[in-house]
């Protein structure tokens, strides 16, 4: 029996794969548990449309990421935080903090995993930050100042 997998199944296949399995395995195990559906003409057409939509969405997201990275190149953002007398921060600045600051200051939405930090920023001053994503890269300056 031909089926479409609705989730990854170890030893059988990945989500949205079309597989041939025995009738009993499909009807008694996979389909009742919501792990697969029968691969009818309608289901196959639906799967094809779903894959096309996902591919289109992925292309749009990639184009948007490229635009955001180009807009970010060369910019400077400022984060104010508490520090001790020697300029050490009480809490390190992580990529998530930088991403939220980019969104609030420039309205640029960027995934924190695209912000390249070897370690959290723990000192006041200027820091050069690299951003990579969608095959592009950019560099901007992060200025960390002491808040009052």
Automatic annotation (TrEMBL):
Pfam families: Ribosomal_L9_C, Ribosomal_L9_N. One of its GO terms (biological process) is translation. Keywords: Coiled coil, Ribonucleoprotein, Ribosomal protein, RNA-binding, rRNA-binding. Residues 37-64 form a coiled coil. One of its GO terms (cellular component) is ribonucleoprotein complex. InterPro entries: Ribosomal_bL9 (IPR000244), Ribosomal_bL9/RNase_H1_N (IPR009027), Ribosomal_bL9_bac/chp (IPR020594), Ribosomal_bL9_C (IPR020069), Ribosomal_bL9_C_sf (IPR036791), Ribosomal_bL9_N (IPR020070), Ribosomal_bL9_N_sf (IPR036935). SUPFAM superfamilies: L9 N-domain-like (SSF55658), Ribosomal protein L9 C-domain (SSF55653). The keyword DNA-binding does not apply. Residues 13-40 form the Ribosomal protein L9 domain. GO terms for molecular function: rRNA binding; structural constituent of ribosome. HAMAP family: Ribosomal_bL9. NCBIfam families: L9. Binds to the 23S rRNA. Belongs to the bacterial ribosomal protein bL9 family. This is Large ribosomal subunit protein bL9. The lineage of its organism: Bacteria, Candidatus Tayloriibacteriota.
């Amino acid at each position: 029996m031909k089926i479409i997998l609705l989730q990854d199944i170890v030893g059988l296949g990945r989500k949205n794969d079309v597989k041939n399995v025995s009738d009993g395995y499909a009807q008694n195990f996979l389909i009742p548990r919501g792990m697969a559906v029968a691969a009818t003409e309608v289901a196959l057409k639906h799967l094809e449309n779903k894959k096309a939509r996902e591919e289109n969405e992925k292309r749009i997201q990639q184009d948007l990421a490229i635009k955001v990275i180009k807009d970010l190149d060369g910019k400077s953002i400022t984060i104010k935080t508490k520090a001790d007398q020697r300029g050490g921060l009480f809490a390190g600045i992580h990529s998530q903090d930088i991403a939220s600051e980019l969104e609030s200051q420039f309205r640029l939405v960027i995934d924190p995993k695209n912000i390249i930090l070897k370690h959290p920023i723990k000192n006041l001053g200027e820091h050069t930050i690299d951003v990579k994503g969608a095959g592009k890269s950019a560099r901007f300056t992060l200025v960390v100042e002491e808040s009052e």
